C-alpha cells in the first residue's frame, strides 16, 4: 500500500481491490474466453453465479467510491481509475439487460463511472487514456471520440459517407447533462461557450455527421431544453407534460427517424445560439427530411412503429414551437398543423395500445396540447369519449395532471353546444330553452369535478400557485423541475377555470332568471391569476421548454381580454399580461401569439 495515502484512502483502495478481484474473476468477456479454451463441461449454475457475482461486485465498487466521495475522502490514487474503468465495462454490458431494473441501475452506474474518470483525468493523464474506443471507429478508420462523450446517437463520417448511409451504427449514451449557469443557455462560461461554438462550427464545416459535432450539438439541445438542464424527473412528470423527454433516448436507440428529428431540433437551436445561418439552413434540411420520411411511413403505421412515428411528430412540433425565436416564421400555425397530424397518428390506433410502455407515456403527455386545436375550432374532442378517458389507464392509475385534463377535454363540447345555442336560426329557437338547461347542468358537473380535483389530488398544486401570486415575499431559491411542473399544472387549472366559467357567465346572461353564480365562478379573477403567475416562468433555468408551458395559458387570456375588455381601454389584466415577460421571453411569446391561427 502506498505510504503516501491517508489511512482512510488506504481502506477505500483496499475495498476497491477486493471488489476488483471478483470483477476480474467473473467478468463476462473473460468467462467466455475461458469457456472457449476449455473442454471441461461447466455446470450451468457456475456460470449464472459467476455473472451475478461480477455484477454485484461492480455495483458494490461504485457504492464504495460514491460513499468515499460523499464523505469528502480523497481519492487521488490512480489505481481507482483503473478499477473504475474495469467495473464500468461490466455496467456497459448490463445496459442491454432484458431486466428493466438491472438495465436502469447499470445505466446509473456507468454514468457515474464515466463522470469519475473524466474528473480524474484532470490530475492523472493515464485516466484520460482509459476512455474506451469503439470497434466501429477503428473499422471506419476515423478518430473515436470515446464513450465518455455525453450523447452519441449517430456515427458517420465524410470519408465513409456512402458506406455509413447504408449501414448506420448507433451508440446509446448518457442522458444526464451538466448543470446550467443562471445567465446563459449553455451550461458553461461565456468564454468557454464561444470556444465550444467555434469548435462545433469547424466540425460542422468538415462533416455534419461527425461524432464529435453530433455529440456536442445534441448535448447542448437537451441541456438547453429541459429545466435546470437535467433529465425531467418522474416525480415532476405527474404534474407536467415533459415526461416524453425521458423516453426519447430509448426510442433514439431503436429508431433512426426519431434520432433524425432530435438532430433537427439540436441543429436549429445551435444555429440560433451561434448566429450561424448555415447551421439553421442545415436544420431546415434535416427537418424536411424527417417530415418526408414521416409522411412516407404513415401508410404502413402499426403498433410496432406507432411509437416511433408519434415521437417524431412530437419532436417536429417542438421544432416549430422553438421557431418562435424568429418573428419571420409562422411558428404558431405550423405548430398547430403538427398537432393535428400528431392527433391523427394517435387516434389511428386503438386506445388499448396505450395502456403501458412508451405508448402510454406519449399519450398522457400529448392529451393536453392535442386538445388545443379542438378548443380553437370549438369542436368536440376525440379524447372526451369514455373509451379514451378510461382504457389507456386500465393498467396504471391516472396521475394528477390527467385527472385535470379529463375536465379540459370536455370544454370543447361546451363551446360547440354554446355556439349552437346562441345560433338564432328559426330551426333551433324551439330547442333553446331545453338546450340551455342541459348545457348549464353539464357546466355544473364540470365545475364539481374541478372542485373535487382542487380539494384532493390537486390541492398541493392549487396551494403552491396560490402562494406564488399571493403578493407575499417569496424565498429567493432557484425553482426545481418539480416546482416548474407544479406551477405549469397550476396554470392549466386556472386556464380550465377561465374557459369553463366564461361560458357559464354567458349562459347566465342569456337566461338572467337562472341560478346566481357564486363569486368563485367569476372568470376575470382567473385571468388575473394566470397573468400574475406567468413571470414565474421567466427564469433562465427553465430552458427552451418555456413555450411549452406558457403559450396555451397566454393565448387563452389574450383571447378572453380581446373579447371582453372595453374597446380602447387597457384593463388591469392586460397590463399584467403585457408586463409578464421581458426581453427574449416577451419577444418569443409575442411571436408565437402573433402567428397563432
UniProtKB/TrEMBL annotation:
Biological source species = Exophiala oligosperma
- Show the taxonomic lineage: Eukaryota, Fungi, Dikarya, Ascomycota, Pezizomycotina
Which InterPro entries did the record assign? Osmoadaptation_assoc (IPR053178)
What's the name of the protein?
Zn(2)-C6 fungal-type domain-containing protein
